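Aim 2, interim progress: modelling of the DGJ-bound target.
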Amino acid sequence: MQNTGSCRRLYVSGVAALMVSSFGFAQGAAPSSAQASGAQMPRVVEKDGRWAFMVDGAPYLMLNDQVNNSSAWPAMLPKVWPAIDHLHANTVEMPVYWEQLEPAQGKFDFSVVDALLAGARQHKVHLVLLWFGTWKNGAMHYTPEWVKRDPAKYPRVTGQDRVAENGAVVHGAPGDTMSPFGAATLEAGKTAFVALMKHLKATDPHHTVLMLQVENEINAYGSRRDYSPEATKLFEGQVPADFAAAMHVKPGTWTEAFGLEAENTFQTWSIARYIEQIAKAGKAAYGLPLYLNHSLENPLATPREGRLEWSAMTDHVLDIWKATAPSLDLVAPDIYMAQYAQYDKIVKTYTRKDNALFVPESGNTAAYARYPFLALGYGAIGWSMFGLDFTGYANAPLGAAVIDDKLVDAFALDYELLGSMDLEIARLNFEGKLQAVCEDPAVRSQTLVFGPWTVTVGYGQPQFGGMRPDAAAATPNPDPTGRALVAQLGPDEFLVTGVSARVDFRPTDTTAGKRRAYIRVEEGTYVDGKWKMARIWNGDQTDYGLNFKSLPQVLHVTVMTY
Ligand code: DGJ
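Predicted structure of the complex, ligand included:
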Protein backbone atom coordinates (compact mmCIF):
# COMPACT_ATOMS: atom_id res chain seq x y z
CA MET A 1 0.00 0.00 0.00
CA GLN A 2 1.35 3.44 -0.87
CA ASN A 3 1.03 6.12 1.70
CA THR A 4 -0.94 8.43 -0.53
CA GLY A 5 -3.20 10.22 1.87
CA SER A 6 -2.53 7.58 4.44
CA CYS A 7 0.26 9.05 6.50
CA ARG A 8 -0.95 10.15 9.87
CA ARG A 9 -0.46 13.81 9.01
CA LEU A 10 -2.96 13.61 6.21
CA TYR A 11 -5.09 11.14 8.08
CA VAL A 12 -5.52 13.51 11.01
CA SER A 13 -5.64 16.82 9.30
CA GLY A 14 -6.98 15.82 5.94
CA VAL A 15 -6.08 17.38 2.64
CA ALA A 16 -5.88 20.97 3.69
CA ALA A 17 -7.44 23.08 0.99
CA LEU A 18 -6.98 26.83 1.29
CA MET A 19 -9.69 27.01 3.86
CA VAL A 20 -10.99 29.54 6.24
CA SER A 21 -12.07 27.83 9.39
CA SER A 22 -15.22 28.67 11.25
CA PHE A 23 -12.90 30.74 13.42
CA GLY A 24 -11.88 32.68 10.36
CA PHE A 25 -8.23 32.02 9.77
CA ALA A 26 -6.62 30.84 6.60
CA GLN A 27 -5.29 27.33 6.75
CA GLY A 28 -2.55 27.56 4.16
CA ALA A 29 -2.19 26.49 0.61
CA ALA A 30 -4.04 23.44 -0.58
CA PRO A 31 -1.89 20.56 -1.66
CA SER A 32 -2.87 19.74 -5.21
CA SER A 33 -3.57 16.11 -5.92
CA ALA A 34 0.05 15.81 -7.08
CA GLN A 35 1.20 17.21 -3.77
CA ALA A 36 -1.13 15.00 -1.81
CA SER A 37 0.33 12.02 -3.60
CA GLY A 38 3.70 13.00 -2.24
CA ALA A 39 5.22 13.96 -5.57
CA GLN A 40 7.12 16.93 -4.14
CA MET A 41 10.48 16.29 -2.51
CA PRO A 42 10.58 17.17 1.18
CA ARG A 43 12.70 20.28 1.70
CA VAL A 44 14.06 22.27 4.61
CA VAL A 45 13.46 25.93 3.83
CA GLU A 46 14.32 29.21 5.52
CA LYS A 47 12.55 32.56 5.31
CA ASP A 48 13.36 35.62 7.40
CA GLY A 49 15.36 33.47 9.82
CA ARG A 50 12.52 31.01 10.38
CA TRP A 51 12.39 27.44 9.17
CA ALA A 52 9.90 25.01 7.73
CA PHE A 53 10.17 21.38 6.75
CA MET A 54 8.10 21.30 3.58
CA VAL A 55 6.34 18.00 3.02
CA ASP A 56 3.73 17.65 0.28
CA GLY A 57 4.16 21.37 -0.32
CA ALA A 58 3.26 22.57 3.18
CA PRO A 59 5.15 23.05 6.46
CA TYR A 60 5.24 19.80 8.40
CA LEU A 61 5.94 19.24 12.09
CA MET A 62 7.79 16.04 12.97
CA LEU A 63 6.52 14.52 16.21
CA ASN A 64 8.92 11.62 16.38
CA ASP A 65 10.07 8.64 18.32
CA GLN A 66 13.54 7.22 17.77
CA VAL A 67 13.41 3.49 18.36
CA ASN A 68 16.09 1.69 20.33
CA ASN A 69 19.25 0.86 18.44
CA SER A 70 18.42 -2.81 17.87
CA SER A 71 14.70 -2.38 17.31
CA ALA A 72 14.59 -1.80 13.54
CA TRP A 73 14.50 -5.50 12.70
CA PRO A 74 11.37 -7.17 11.28
CA ALA A 75 11.31 -9.53 14.27
CA MET A 76 11.09 -6.58 16.66
CA LEU A 77 8.64 -4.40 14.77
CA PRO A 78 5.52 -5.98 16.29
CA LYS A 79 6.76 -4.54 19.59
CA VAL A 80 7.62 -1.18 18.10
CA TRP A 81 4.48 -0.20 16.22
CA PRO A 82 2.16 -0.43 19.25
CA ALA A 83 4.34 2.13 21.05
CA ILE A 84 4.25 4.43 18.02
CA ASP A 85 0.46 4.16 17.82
CA HIS A 86 0.11 4.72 21.56
CA LEU A 87 2.39 7.71 21.34
CA HIS A 88 0.53 9.40 18.45
CA ALA A 89 3.90 9.97 16.75
CA ASN A 90 3.59 11.03 13.13
CA THR A 91 7.17 10.14 12.19
CA VAL A 92 9.51 7.39 13.36
CA GLU A 93 13.29 7.46 13.36
CA MET A 94 14.58 4.01 12.43
CA PRO A 95 18.19 2.91 11.99
CA VAL A 96 19.44 1.21 8.86
CA TYR A 97 22.46 -0.93 9.68
CA TRP A 98 25.33 -1.12 7.19
CA GLU A 99 26.26 -4.59 8.46
CA GLN A 100 22.75 -5.80 7.58
CA LEU A 101 22.37 -3.87 4.34
CA GLU A 102 25.61 -5.11 2.76
CA PRO A 103 26.58 -8.38 4.43
CA ALA A 104 29.00 -9.16 1.59
CA GLN A 105 30.63 -6.40 -0.39
CA GLY A 106 28.41 -5.36 -3.27
CA LYS A 107 25.56 -7.69 -2.22
CA PHE A 108 22.72 -5.63 -0.84
CA ASP A 109 19.80 -6.90 1.19
CA PHE A 110 16.95 -4.38 1.25
CA SER A 111 14.46 -6.67 2.95
CA VAL A 112 14.75 -4.91 6.32
CA VAL A 113 14.38 -1.44 4.80
CA ASP A 114 11.36 -2.69 2.88
CA ALA A 115 9.81 -4.00 6.10
CA LEU A 116 10.28 -0.57 7.71
CA LEU A 117 8.62 1.13 4.76
CA ALA A 118 5.72 -1.32 4.70
CA GLY A 119 5.14 -1.00 8.45
CA ALA A 120 5.28 2.78 8.37
CA ARG A 121 2.72 2.91 5.58
CA GLN A 122 0.47 0.52 7.42
CA HIS A 123 0.71 2.61 10.59
CA LYS A 124 0.27 5.86 8.69
CA VAL A 125 3.52 7.46 9.76
CA HIS A 126 6.53 8.87 7.99
CA LEU A 127 10.10 7.70 8.54
CA VAL A 128 13.43 9.36 9.17
CA LEU A 129 16.12 6.77 8.47
CA LEU A 130 19.36 6.79 10.46
CA TRP A 131 22.34 5.54 8.51
CA PHE A 132 24.46 3.61 10.99
CA GLY A 133 27.46 3.30 8.68
CA THR A 134 31.08 4.22 9.31
CA TRP A 135 30.37 5.81 12.70
CA LYS A 136 27.79 5.12 15.37
CA ASN A 137 28.39 6.89 18.68
CA GLY A 138 31.92 7.42 17.43
CA ALA A 139 32.57 3.70 17.05
CA MET A 140 32.75 1.46 13.99
CA HIS A 141 30.42 -1.20 15.32
CA TYR A 142 27.93 -1.13 12.46
CA THR A 143 30.46 -1.60 9.69
CA PRO A 144 30.07 -4.99 7.98
CA GLU A 145 32.27 -7.90 8.96
CA TRP A 146 34.25 -7.61 5.72
CA VAL A 147 35.23 -4.09 6.78
CA LYS A 148 36.03 -4.99 10.38
CA ARG A 149 38.20 -7.92 9.36
CA ASP A 150 40.37 -5.97 6.92
CA PRO A 151 42.02 -3.15 8.88
CA ALA A 152 44.80 -2.84 6.33
CA LYS A 153 42.28 -1.80 3.71
CA TYR A 154 39.83 -0.08 6.09
CA PRO A 155 42.08 1.55 8.69
CA ARG A 156 41.07 2.52 12.18
CA VAL A 157 42.09 5.70 13.94
CA THR A 158 45.64 5.43 15.25
CA GLY A 159 46.09 6.57 18.83
CA GLN A 160 48.84 8.89 20.00
CA ASP A 161 52.35 7.55 20.62
CA ARG A 162 53.36 7.62 24.25
CA VAL A 163 56.58 7.23 26.17
CA ALA A 164 56.64 4.23 28.53
CA GLU A 165 58.22 4.31 32.01
CA ASN A 166 61.40 2.78 30.60
CA GLY A 167 61.62 5.59 28.07
CA ALA A 168 60.62 3.47 25.09
CA VAL A 169 58.18 4.94 22.60
CA VAL A 170 54.95 2.95 22.51
CA HIS A 171 53.27 3.46 19.18
CA GLY A 172 49.65 4.51 19.15
CA ALA A 173 47.23 1.62 19.16
CA PRO A 174 44.38 1.27 16.65
CA GLY A 175 41.13 2.60 18.04
CA ASP A 176 37.60 1.22 17.98
CA THR A 177 36.69 3.72 15.31
CA MET A 178 37.41 4.25 11.64
CA SER A 179 40.00 6.65 10.37
CA PRO A 180 38.43 9.39 8.28
CA PHE A 181 41.48 9.06 6.00
CA GLY A 182 40.70 5.56 4.79
CA ALA A 183 40.10 6.00 1.06
CA ALA A 184 38.66 2.50 0.67
CA THR A 185 36.41 3.01 3.69
CA LEU A 186 35.04 6.19 2.19
CA GLU A 187 34.43 4.51 -1.16
CA ALA A 188 32.72 1.53 0.46
CA GLY A 189 30.64 3.73 2.78
CA LYS A 190 29.64 5.94 -0.11
CA THR A 191 28.65 2.99 -2.28
CA ALA A 192 26.44 1.58 0.45
CA PHE A 193 24.74 4.88 1.22
CA VAL A 194 24.16 5.59 -2.46
CA ALA A 195 22.67 2.10 -2.87
CA LEU A 196 20.26 2.88 -0.03
CA MET A 197 19.28 6.21 -1.59
CA LYS A 198 18.74 4.62 -5.00
CA HIS A 199 16.59 1.95 -3.44
CA LEU A 200 14.44 4.59 -1.74
CA LYS A 201 14.14 6.50 -4.97
CA ALA A 202 12.93 3.37 -6.71
CA THR A 203 10.57 2.12 -4.02
CA ASP A 204 9.30 5.16 -2.15
CA PRO A 205 7.81 7.58 -4.68
CA HIS A 206 5.39 9.03 -2.14
CA HIS A 207 8.03 9.87 0.45
CA THR A 208 7.25 7.69 3.39
CA VAL A 209 10.88 8.50 4.13
CA LEU A 210 11.23 12.22 4.67
CA MET A 211 14.86 12.61 5.64
CA LEU A 212 17.99 10.64 6.51
CA GLN A 213 20.63 11.01 9.16
CA VAL A 214 24.11 10.40 7.71
CA GLU A 215 26.12 8.47 10.33
CA ASN A 216 25.46 8.83 14.04
CA GLU A 217 27.22 10.93 16.70
CA ILE A 218 30.65 10.85 15.12
CA ASN A 219 33.94 11.39 16.90
CA ALA A 220 37.36 9.86 17.40
CA TYR A 221 36.42 7.94 20.53
CA GLY A 222 39.06 8.32 23.17
CA SER A 223 41.54 10.11 20.96
CA ARG A 224 41.80 13.76 20.05
CA ARG A 225 42.51 12.92 16.46
CA ASP A 226 43.84 10.28 14.14
CA TYR A 227 47.63 10.08 14.69
CA SER A 228 48.33 7.97 11.61
CA PRO A 229 51.30 9.22 9.54
CA GLU A 230 48.95 10.48 6.83
CA ALA A 231 46.81 12.39 9.31
CA THR A 232 49.82 13.79 11.13
CA LYS A 233 51.35 15.02 7.87
CA LEU A 234 48.14 16.85 7.08
CA PHE A 235 47.87 18.19 10.62
CA GLU A 236 51.39 19.61 10.44
CA GLY A 237 50.66 21.23 7.10
CA GLN A 238 48.64 24.32 6.30
CA VAL A 239 44.95 24.69 7.01
CA PRO A 240 43.19 24.62 3.59
CA ALA A 241 42.69 28.23 2.54
CA ASP A 242 38.93 27.95 1.98
CA PHE A 243 38.42 26.40 5.40
CA ALA A 244 40.55 29.05 7.12
CA ALA A 245 38.55 31.74 5.35
CA ALA A 246 35.23 30.17 6.32
CA MET A 247 36.38 29.91 9.94
CA HIS A 248 37.70 33.50 9.94
CA VAL A 249 41.19 32.50 11.02
CA LYS A 250 44.53 33.57 9.59
CA PRO A 251 46.17 31.08 7.22
CA GLY A 252 48.83 28.92 8.84
CA THR A 253 49.27 25.48 10.35
CA TRP A 254 46.41 23.99 12.32
CA THR A 255 48.15 24.87 15.55
CA GLU A 256 48.83 28.44 14.44
CA ALA A 257 45.26 28.90 13.29
CA PHE A 258 43.37 27.18 16.09
CA GLY A 259 45.73 27.01 19.08
CA LEU A 260 44.41 24.73 21.82
CA GLU A 261 41.49 23.73 19.62
CA ALA A 262 43.77 22.64 16.77
CA GLU A 263 43.49 18.87 17.14
CA ASN A 264 39.80 18.95 17.83
CA THR A 265 39.18 21.21 14.86
CA PHE A 266 41.34 19.06 12.63
CA GLN A 267 39.56 15.85 13.61
CA THR A 268 36.15 17.45 13.17
CA TRP A 269 37.12 18.80 9.78
CA SER A 270 38.49 15.38 8.77
CA ILE A 271 35.23 13.61 9.60
CA ALA A 272 33.08 16.41 8.21
CA ARG A 273 35.00 16.19 4.93
CA TYR A 274 34.39 12.44 4.81
CA ILE A 275 30.70 12.78 5.62
CA GLU A 276 30.29 15.56 3.08
CA GLN A 277 31.40 13.16 0.38
CA ILE A 278 28.94 10.49 1.53
CA ALA A 279 26.12 13.03 1.79
CA LYS A 280 26.88 14.64 -1.55
CA ALA A 281 26.93 11.31 -3.37
CA GLY A 282 23.73 10.20 -1.61
CA LYS A 283 21.96 13.41 -2.49
CA ALA A 284 23.04 13.17 -6.11
CA ALA A 285 21.37 9.75 -6.21
CA TYR A 286 18.22 10.94 -4.49
CA GLY A 287 17.76 14.44 -3.12
CA LEU A 288 16.11 13.89 0.24
CA PRO A 289 17.13 16.20 3.11
CA LEU A 290 20.09 14.94 5.15
CA TYR A 291 21.36 15.75 8.61
CA LEU A 292 23.87 14.68 11.21
CA ASN A 293 23.29 14.43 14.95
CA HIS A 294 25.72 15.70 17.57
CA SER A 295 26.27 14.44 21.06
CA LEU A 296 26.92 17.27 23.44
CA GLU A 297 28.96 18.54 26.30
CA ASN A 298 27.29 20.25 29.19
CA PRO A 299 26.73 23.68 27.62
CA LEU A 300 26.87 25.40 31.00
CA ALA A 301 30.12 23.87 32.24
CA THR A 302 33.17 26.15 32.40
CA PRO A 303 35.63 25.12 31.20
CA ARG A 304 33.70 22.72 29.05
CA GLU A 305 34.06 19.22 30.39
CA GLY A 306 35.71 16.69 28.16
CA ARG A 307 36.39 19.11 25.36
CA LEU A 308 39.77 17.71 24.48
CA GLU A 309 39.00 14.04 24.96
CA TRP A 310 35.80 13.78 22.97
CA SER A 311 36.57 15.78 19.91
CA ALA A 312 34.64 16.33 16.78
CA MET A 313 31.01 16.33 17.76
CA THR A 314 30.03 18.97 20.24
CA ASP A 315 28.06 22.16 19.78
CA HIS A 316 31.12 24.38 19.56
CA VAL A 317 32.00 22.69 16.29
CA LEU A 318 28.84 23.79 14.49
CA ASP A 319 30.76 26.30 12.40
CA ILE A 320 33.18 23.61 11.25
CA TRP A 321 30.29 21.50 10.01
CA LYS A 322 28.67 24.40 8.25
CA ALA A 323 31.92 25.23 6.47
CA THR A 324 32.81 21.66 5.54
CA ALA A 325 29.64 19.68 4.94
CA PRO A 326 27.24 21.86 2.94
CA SER A 327 25.35 18.80 1.66
CA LEU A 328 23.90 18.36 5.15
CA ASP A 329 20.68 20.33 5.45
CA LEU A 330 21.16 20.67 9.18
CA VAL A 331 23.06 19.47 12.19
CA ALA A 332 21.02 18.49 15.18
CA PRO A 333 21.53 18.13 18.93
CA ASP A 334 20.92 14.91 20.85
CA ILE A 335 19.83 16.21 24.23
CA TYR A 336 20.27 14.05 27.29
CA MET A 337 20.31 16.88 29.80
CA ALA A 338 17.06 17.32 31.63
CA GLN A 339 17.88 20.59 33.37
CA TYR A 340 15.90 23.49 31.93
CA ALA A 341 18.86 25.85 31.66
CA GLN A 342 20.93 23.28 29.77
CA TYR A 343 18.13 22.29 27.44
CA ASP A 344 17.29 25.90 26.73
CA LYS A 345 20.91 26.78 25.95
CA ILE A 346 21.26 23.85 23.57
CA VAL A 347 18.14 24.49 21.52
CA LYS A 348 19.06 28.16 21.35
CA THR A 349 22.55 27.25 20.08
CA TYR A 350 21.23 25.05 17.28
CA THR A 351 18.68 27.61 16.08
CA ARG A 352 20.56 29.64 13.54
CA LYS A 353 20.05 31.53 10.33
CA ASP A 354 22.00 28.70 8.68
CA ASN A 355 20.56 25.84 10.75
CA ALA A 356 17.01 24.67 11.33
CA LEU A 357 16.34 23.34 14.81
CA PHE A 358 15.49 19.65 14.84
CA VAL A 359 15.92 17.59 18.02
CA PRO A 360 16.29 13.97 16.84
CA GLU A 361 16.96 12.56 20.31
CA SER A 362 16.01 13.57 23.81
CA GLY A 363 15.92 11.71 27.08
CA ASN A 364 12.77 9.73 27.68
CA THR A 365 12.03 10.31 31.33
CA ALA A 366 8.89 12.27 32.12
CA ALA A 367 10.93 15.44 32.78
CA TYR A 368 11.58 15.68 29.04
CA ALA A 369 7.90 15.59 28.07
CA ARG A 370 7.64 19.37 28.32
CA TYR A 371 10.56 20.04 26.00
CA PRO A 372 8.80 19.71 22.62
CA PHE A 373 7.14 23.00 23.60
CA LEU A 374 10.46 24.66 24.36
CA ALA A 375 11.81 23.48 21.01
CA LEU A 376 8.71 24.81 19.23
CA GLY A 377 9.30 28.12 20.97
CA TYR A 378 12.59 28.24 19.07
CA GLY A 379 10.86 27.34 15.81
CA ALA A 380 11.77 23.63 15.71
CA ILE A 381 10.77 21.63 12.65
CA GLY A 382 10.63 18.45 14.71
CA TRP A 383 11.35 16.78 18.00
CA SER A 384 11.97 13.27 19.26
CA MET A 385 12.57 11.42 22.45
CA PHE A 386 14.76 8.32 22.33
CA GLY A 387 13.83 4.70 22.69
CA LEU A 388 10.12 4.55 23.41
CA ASP A 389 9.29 1.10 22.15
CA PHE A 390 8.04 -2.07 23.78
CA THR A 391 11.01 -4.28 22.92
CA GLY A 392 11.81 -4.63 26.61
CA TYR A 393 14.89 -2.42 26.57
CA ALA A 394 15.36 0.89 28.32
CA ASN A 395 18.38 3.05 28.97
CA ALA A 396 18.04 2.53 32.69
CA PRO A 397 19.95 0.49 35.27
CA LEU A 398 19.49 -3.25 34.75
CA GLY A 399 16.36 -4.37 36.53
CA ALA A 400 14.90 -0.87 36.50
CA ALA A 401 11.58 -0.29 34.84
CA VAL A 402 11.38 -0.79 31.11
CA ILE A 403 9.35 1.41 28.84
CA ASP A 404 5.72 1.03 29.81
CA ASP A 405 2.39 2.60 28.98
CA LYS A 406 2.64 5.08 31.83
CA LEU A 407 5.89 6.58 30.58
CA VAL A 408 4.62 6.61 27.01
CA ASP A 409 1.50 8.44 28.25
CA ALA A 410 3.58 11.41 29.40
CA PHE A 411 4.75 11.99 25.83
CA ALA A 412 1.54 10.79 24.16
CA LEU A 413 -0.24 13.77 25.71
CA ASP A 414 2.10 16.12 23.84
CA TYR A 415 1.74 14.33 20.58
CA GLU A 416 -2.00 13.97 20.79
CA LEU A 417 -2.28 17.66 21.56
CA LEU A 418 0.22 18.92 19.00
CA GLY A 419 -0.57 16.24 16.44
CA SER A 420 -4.18 17.33 16.22
CA MET A 421 -2.96 20.59 14.68
CA ASP A 422 0.56 19.76 13.50
CA LEU A 423 0.15 21.44 10.11
CA GLU A 424 -1.30 24.56 11.70
CA ILE A 425 1.56 24.72 14.22
CA ALA A 426 4.23 24.26 11.56
CA ARG A 427 2.69 26.95 9.39
CA LEU A 428 2.11 29.44 12.20
CA ASN A 429 5.66 28.94 13.43
CA PHE A 430 7.07 29.50 9.94
CA GLU A 431 5.01 32.70 9.73
CA GLY A 432 6.40 33.90 13.06
CA LYS A 433 3.01 33.90 14.77
CA LEU A 434 3.66 31.23 17.37
CA GLN A 435 5.36 31.26 20.75
CA ALA A 436 5.76 28.34 23.12
CA VAL A 437 7.40 27.79 26.47
CA CYS A 438 7.82 25.15 29.13
CA GLU A 439 8.31 25.27 32.83
CA ASP A 440 11.58 26.58 34.19
CA PRO A 441 11.43 25.33 37.77
CA ALA A 442 13.20 28.45 38.95
CA VAL A 443 10.25 30.70 38.10
CA ARG A 444 6.50 30.61 38.51
CA SER A 445 5.54 32.49 35.37
CA GLN A 446 6.81 33.46 31.94
CA THR A 447 5.54 36.11 29.55
CA LEU A 448 5.01 36.08 25.81
CA VAL A 449 4.47 39.36 24.02
CA PHE A 450 2.25 39.59 20.94
CA GLY A 451 2.31 43.31 20.20
CA PRO A 452 -0.51 44.89 22.23
CA TRP A 453 -1.23 41.64 24.06
CA THR A 454 0.99 40.06 26.69
CA VAL A 455 0.35 36.46 27.62
CA THR A 456 1.36 35.20 31.03
CA VAL A 457 2.00 31.49 31.49
CA GLY A 458 1.90 30.50 35.13
CA TYR A 459 2.97 27.26 36.80
CA GLY A 460 1.87 25.89 40.15
CA GLN A 461 -0.72 28.64 40.30
CA PRO A 462 -3.90 28.47 42.33
CA GLN A 463 -7.07 27.59 40.46
CA PHE A 464 -8.73 30.83 41.47
CA GLY A 465 -7.35 34.28 42.20
CA GLY A 466 -4.76 36.38 40.47
CA MET A 467 -1.58 35.05 38.94
CA ARG A 468 1.18 34.92 41.55
CA PRO A 469 4.57 35.85 40.17
CA ASP A 470 5.88 34.97 43.66
CA ALA A 471 8.66 33.46 45.61
CA ALA A 472 9.33 30.93 43.00
CA ALA A 473 13.07 30.96 42.85
CA ALA A 474 13.26 30.18 46.55
CA THR A 475 11.22 27.04 46.08
CA PRO A 476 11.97 25.50 42.71
CA ASN A 477 9.32 23.06 41.57
CA PRO A 478 10.88 19.58 41.96
CA ASP A 479 8.57 18.12 39.30
CA PRO A 480 8.21 20.66 36.51
CA THR A 481 5.73 19.56 33.85
CA GLY A 482 4.13 22.80 32.66
CA ARG A 483 4.08 23.86 29.03
CA ALA A 484 2.06 26.18 26.83
CA LEU A 485 1.75 27.29 23.25
CA VAL A 486 0.09 30.44 21.96
CA ALA A 487 -0.32 31.51 18.35
CA GLN A 488 -1.80 34.72 17.06
CA LEU A 489 -4.59 34.19 14.54
CA GLY A 490 -5.85 37.77 14.34
CA PRO A 491 -5.36 41.07 16.19
CA ASP A 492 -7.33 39.80 19.21
CA GLU A 493 -7.61 36.11 18.37
CA PHE A 494 -5.34 33.36 19.59
CA LEU A 495 -4.85 29.63 19.48
CA VAL A 496 -3.93 28.51 22.99
CA THR A 497 -3.00 25.20 24.52
CA GLY A 498 -1.02 23.93 27.46
CA VAL A 499 -0.47 21.32 30.11
CA SER A 500 -0.27 22.02 33.86
CA ALA A 501 -0.27 25.73 33.20
CA ARG A 502 -2.46 28.76 33.59
CA VAL A 503 -2.51 31.11 30.63
CA ASP A 504 -3.85 34.63 30.82
CA PHE A 505 -3.88 37.75 28.68
CA ARG A 506 -3.35 41.39 29.53
CA PRO A 507 -2.76 44.56 27.52
CA THR A 508 0.96 45.10 27.01
CA ASP A 509 0.51 48.81 27.62
CA THR A 510 -0.23 49.01 31.32
CA THR A 511 -0.33 52.80 31.40
CA ALA A 512 -3.77 53.14 29.82
CA GLY A 513 -5.52 51.43 32.74
CA LYS A 514 -7.24 48.95 30.42
CA ARG A 515 -8.17 45.41 31.38
CA ARG A 516 -8.85 42.33 29.35
CA ALA A 517 -12.12 40.52 28.88
CA TYR A 518 -12.63 37.14 27.31
CA ILE A 519 -15.17 37.62 24.56
CA ARG A 520 -15.22 33.98 23.57
CA VAL A 521 -13.16 30.95 24.53
CA GLU A 522 -13.91 27.96 22.35
CA GLU A 523 -12.56 24.52 23.11
CA GLY A 524 -12.35 22.41 20.01
CA THR A 525 -10.17 20.57 17.58
CA TYR A 526 -9.04 20.67 13.99
CA VAL A 527 -10.78 18.21 11.72
CA ASP A 528 -9.47 18.06 8.18
CA GLY A 529 -7.80 21.40 8.76
CA LYS A 530 -10.99 23.10 9.92
CA TRP A 531 -11.63 24.29 13.45
CA LYS A 532 -14.57 22.53 15.05
CA MET A 533 -15.87 23.93 18.30
CA ALA A 534 -16.97 21.47 20.98
CA ARG A 535 -17.94 23.89 23.76
CA ILE A 536 -17.42 27.39 25.13
CA TRP A 537 -15.34 27.81 28.27
CA ASN A 538 -16.70 30.32 30.77
CA GLY A 539 -17.21 30.76 34.51
CA ASP A 540 -14.64 28.91 36.60
CA GLN A 541 -12.83 27.90 33.43
CA THR A 542 -12.03 31.50 32.45
CA ASP A 543 -12.74 33.88 35.35
CA TYR A 544 -9.15 33.73 36.59
CA GLY A 545 -7.37 32.78 33.41
CA LEU A 546 -7.27 29.62 31.33
CA ASN A 547 -6.35 26.67 33.49
CA PHE A 548 -4.87 23.74 31.58
CA LYS A 549 -4.71 20.39 33.32
CA SER A 550 -3.26 17.22 31.81
CA LEU A 551 -5.67 16.85 28.93
CA PRO A 552 -5.25 17.48 25.22
CA GLN A 553 -7.30 20.69 25.20
CA VAL A 554 -7.03 23.34 22.50
CA LEU A 555 -8.71 26.75 22.71
CA HIS A 556 -9.53 29.50 20.27
CA VAL A 557 -9.59 32.65 22.32
CA THR A 558 -10.96 36.11 21.48
CA VAL A 559 -10.06 38.93 23.84
CA MET A 560 -10.86 42.62 24.15
CA THR A 561 -9.96 45.46 26.46
CA TYR A 562 -12.31 47.62 28.45
C1 DGJ B 1 22.84 8.64 21.44
C2 DGJ B 1 22.90 7.77 20.21
O1 DGJ B 1 22.81 8.57 19.06
C3 DGJ B 1 21.80 6.74 20.21
O2 DGJ B 1 21.93 5.89 19.11
C4 DGJ B 1 21.84 5.96 21.51
O3 DGJ B 1 23.02 5.25 21.58
C5 DGJ B 1 21.71 6.94 22.67
N1 DGJ B 1 22.77 7.90 22.64
C6 DGJ B 1 21.79 6.30 24.04
O4 DGJ B 1 21.04 5.20 24.17
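The two ends are 57 Å apart (CA to CA). The chain has 17 helices and 26 strands.
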